[in-house]
What we know:
With 424 residues, this protein is of the alpha+beta class.
Amino acid sequence: MSQKIAGPKGMNDILPGEVEVWQHVERTARELFSRFGYGEVRTPTVEDTALFVRSVGEETDIVGKEMYTFEDKGGRSLSLRPEGTAPAARAYIEHSVVNQEPLTRWFYMGPMFRYERMKTGRYRQFHQIGAEAYGSKEPAQDVEIMDLVVQLLQTLGLKDVSLNINSLGDETCRPAYQEKLVGHLRAHVDELCADCKVRLERNPLRVLDCKVERCQQIALAAPSILESLCEPCREHFASVQRKMGALGIKFEINHRIMRGLDYYTRTTFEFIAAHPVLGTASTVGGGGRYDKLVKSLGGPDVPAVGVGLGLDRLCLLLRESGQRFGQPAQLFIAVADEGSADEALALASRLRREGLRVELDTRGGSLKSQMKRADKVGATYTLVLGELERTSGQAQLKPMAGGEPVPVKLAELAQTLHAAKPAA
Ligand code: HAM
């Protein structure tokens, strides 16, 4: 026997039955993004490796340990995208979008890749829904992005998600904080892991998101960045909070939201779900402001703010909610005798042209087995087509949820089904 080949580790197949939740979240997000004026951008799944090294940062776990990097046949170093902000910024610069409009709102959905240690809610291929707004340095833009997520979670019916916000300051006040942080870390240098010893020299902020237990304890005792903010950053953060309050959005200030990517300035935030299904992978989304990224990638000096949501995690939560997604067949046509098979096929074809979801079992088989199939697909009605129905043009519509069969003329079947209530 030939040996079976398994799918890549940490990468999931999403089959019918499960995909309906995904489609529901994607549809809901698209509808909401359009209300907020965000247009969809689609970028390649791979990018020049340097794009992520320069934006996400060399000392981050994402770039340092988790990227799928390879050389193409032309000797270029490419990486599967580990996130969507840098590719979107690259496209924004490459197409000189700033010359077409001063304020740009984009969203994207798609697979991202990180070679992570897998567990529930953490995969090597995962999916993000992201939104990025370029061109506004105002706190109102930070708030709009967070409001977008709040409204998405509400529309999806996801409760028990808390919002943590922080400010990482800017190039004026960050160095002073960094100095304080280095002071704290140096006092514990012997206890830090080998990676963090390097980070301490090259990018001390990244010590704060190390996953090693001992480093995390040292990070817990680190000074708060909020105490080091300069006046403009302090005012920006205060204004974000006032505006969030005015919209009735609840949040907590958490000075530990460092985000694990280098490009952030000022506001950062994370949406954290309390549900046990996610285990420790409880962050369903995160983002923040990155006012210097576009310029640092060779683009114009354009401020930006954005968010990335973990679609896999949102779907895990939604599946737990017990809601049903997807649309079952409105009608299942069962064939009573072989002589009716062609007519059943033609009837199904005609009804589908008229916009109805119709199934029949192309294998034929006994009426009993066909009814079993009707039950399995969750059809709202069944109709048995045999010689009597064909010659009389009349049939019985049987509600699968129970109740009396309804007599129907075959010629009026589409109208009747269109008028019928969907299954409860
Ligand atoms: P991030 O926090 O790295 O941010 O990822 C955003 C979200 O993607 C996370 O909150 C999480 O829900 C999900 N996620 C991340 N890694 C995995 C994984 N291995 N498996 C499953 N889900 C995962 C970013 O990527 C930024 N680009 C967000 C952003 C947009 N900031 C500004 N604009």
